[in-house]
Amino acid sequence: MNQKPFGFRRNLRLLNASDFRTVFDQVEVKAPSEQCTLLARRNSLGLPRIGFILARKNIKRAVQRNRIKRFCREYLRLNQHQLPDLDIILMGRKGLDQLSDEQLHKLLQKLFEKLKKRASRS
After folding, report:
1. With a threshold of 0.85, does the pTM exceed it?
2. CA 96/CA 104 separation, integer angstroms
3. Among candidates 30, 32, 31, 26, which has minimal Cα distance to 44?
4. What is the pLDDT of residues 16-33, one digit of tens each?
């Protein structure tokens, strides 16, 4: 039985400005909420990738920005095999840092589910 690994390697991240620009220029799917928005476009890499835009203006403390990124990366790591091949940008808004871990988990679940449904339609 050949199992896929559950690691969060470097190739699961949007790393440079051109990756982000491509997503912004060619947004195919959006999943908005009050605290954050997911923007996505299909890729041909055979795996989902994620990048973060968490402005200091919206989330003041670095500790909170890092907690959110860590939590989102872990969510993607555990659910990467259920997601379509998308480049995803998570854009944080005011109030995202006020969510507890449980609330953040529920929000991510809801948004990624919305993203999956909308991506399968288009």
Report:
1. yes
2. 8
3. 26
4. 999 999 999 999 999 999
